[in-house]
Specification:
InterPro entries: Flavodoxin_fold, Flavoprotein-like_sf, NAD(P)H_dehydrogenase_qn. Keywords: Oxidoreductase. This is NAD(P)H dehydrogenase (Quinone). Helix 1 crosses helix 7. It is globular and about 55 Å long. It has helices spanning 16-30, 65-75, 80-91, 108-117, 170-173, 175-183, 203-218, and strands at 3-8, 34-39, 94-98, 129-130, 133-134, 147-153, 188-189, 193-195. It has 270 residues and is of the alpha/beta class. The chain has 2 domains: 3-224, Flavodoxin domain (Rossmann fold, 3-Layer(aba) Sandwich); 227-270, no CATH class. The protein binds flavin-adenine dinucleotide (FAD). Flavin-adenine dinucleotide binds next to helix 1.
């Protein structure tokens, strides 16, 4: 039995996105897992990152969000909503993010959840910084050992998001979330669960989507994650650049994927 947190961001409980979230809850519970849902619209989650996030400020004259975040996390003076979400993340063995693709990213309410919950000392600013070591991040950190997966309905058709598609590949579009937001604090990132042409989904399409999601959830802890290189796994030099000889034959962000041609051993899964 595992613990699974679903962070859900859709304003309509009868939406397709909400139906996927509901299906995930029933499927995972039927498999014996314990599930918690942070339904951000229902919680009326505070989206704006501002001074109100700190109950004891270290500089009343000028807000330096990072410095206040560091102080609040270290002194246990964060607001209760932020601390509660961090506890849920630490409780979880896997975290599912449920949201529709809006303007090539996540809805603002979910971005606001990340901005506020992923605090200094919790999601960044973790570990030793100095010399050639730039902290515990990209595969290491507070959230290491936990899996993450996006469940993301997308209005556009699948070809638009293919390698040569006009929108750019989905892999590239989700890179800031997958790598910059989830892998950064240590989460092991699973391939996403996209539902393309979501605005035109009919009953037959839903039946297929539901069956596919159940299959993905069955493999949540056994399917292969995206093979990002770990920052401290020997792939990068002291300036955090990929070492010569690695990433050959790839371009863009794909150079940060472990490749079969790499001279060194595939790093252990985190
Ligand atoms: C602000 C904004 C920005 C956007 N940006 C982008 C973008 O950058 N790229 C892009 O490709 N798209 C974009 N879109 C489109 C967006 O991704 C889709 O509207 C979204 O994925 C649809 O998901 P939903 O949960 O809102 O669907 P809903 O509107 O709730 O439902 C979609 C369809 O699914 C049907 N359906 C079938 N089965 C079920 C079921 N069991 N439960 C509920 N509904 C079901 C509904 O009848 C409906 O026809 C954007 C939309 C908005 C509003």
């Amino acid at each position: 039995m595992s613990h699974i947190l679903i962070v859900h961001a859709h304003p309509e409980p009868q939406s397709l996105t909400s139906a996927l979230k509901d299906l995930a809850v029933t499927t995972l519970e039927a498999r014996g897992h314990e599930v918690q849902v942070s339904d951000l619209y229902a919680m009326r989650w505070k989206t704006l990152a501002d001074r109100q996030d700190f109950t004891d400020t270290c500089d009343a004259e000028r807000l330096r969000y990072i410095a206040e975040s560091r102080h609040a996390y270290a002194t246990d003076t964060q607001t209760m909503d932020i601390a509660a979400e961090q506890q849920k993340l630490l409780w979880a063995d896997a975290v599912l993010f449920s949201f529709p693709l809006w303007w090539f990213g996540m809805p603002a309410i979910l971005k606001g959840w990340v901005d506020r919950v992923f605090a200094f000392g919790f999601a960044y600013g973790v570990g030793e910084h100095g010399g050639e070591r730039w902290g515990d991040r990209y595969g290491e950190g507070m959230l290491a050992g936990r899996r993450a997966m996006l469940m993301v309905p997308i209005g556009g058709r699948a070809p638009y998001y293919s390698e040569r598609g006009v929108n750019g590949s989905l892999e590239e579009i989700l890179w800031p979330i997958h790598h910059g937001t989830l892998f950064y604090p240590g989460l092991t990132v699973m391939p996403p669960f996209p539902v393309y042409s979501s605005d035109r989904l009919d009953e037959a399409g839903w039946q297929q989507v539901a069956a596919d999601l159940e299959q993905r959830l069955a493999g949540l802890f056994s399917d292969a994650p995206i093979a990002y290189r770990r920052q401290n796994g020997g792939h990068y030099d002291g300036e955090q650049r990929l070492k010569p000889g690695l990433g050959e034959g790839e371009g863009g962000t794909r150079i940060h994927l472990v490749q079969p041609s790499d001279p060194e051993q595939r790093p252990a899964r985190v």
